[in-house]
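Lecture 7 notes: from sequence to structure.
We start with the chain below.
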Amino acid sequence: MTVRPIRYLGDPVLRRPAKAVVEVNDAIRLLIADMIESMHAAQGVGLAAPQIGVGLQVVVLGMPEEEPFALINPRVTSHSGSRMMDAEGCLSVPGYRGSLNRSVKVTVQALDEHGEPVEIVAEDDLLAEALEHEVDHLNGILYVDHVADLGKLQKLRGTGWVDEDSPDEPSTAAANAGAEGRS
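Predicted structure tokens for the same chain:
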């Protein structure tokens, strides 16, 4: 297993729709193992293959205190409700958090690492948020694309939030970077 470098906002691979996996084989399982290692090393709860430069429909999720798992060719088959997420972040947009709406309930169908069909239903929790977030990545969408006002992205400094009155407010560069690749 190898920790692979995370790709950051501005890298074109993050804006390309990922291709479906045709066959779940040992190469895909090795990719999944690398993705789990990379996600853990970056202290994330989810990672999509494009985030490590691989344009395939593979995501891994690792909810706190649960075993990580992979979803291959995941698709959201239903979603309902709306809730405001006050501090969604992304390994590909490090140091920033934003407010956006996500669904309350999400149903995803996919294949597992053995090529078997799975269905996951998550409601009003971190998993529901992460499912939508990671499937977005496979479609070339980043969470900043859902943020209404990129100038209001919250910037992290060290382990805490930057004070709104601080001279080091969220940078225009981050806001402009979020606009890259929008149509």
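Points to note: The CA atoms of residues 1 and 30 lie 7 Å apart. The chain has three helices and nine strands.
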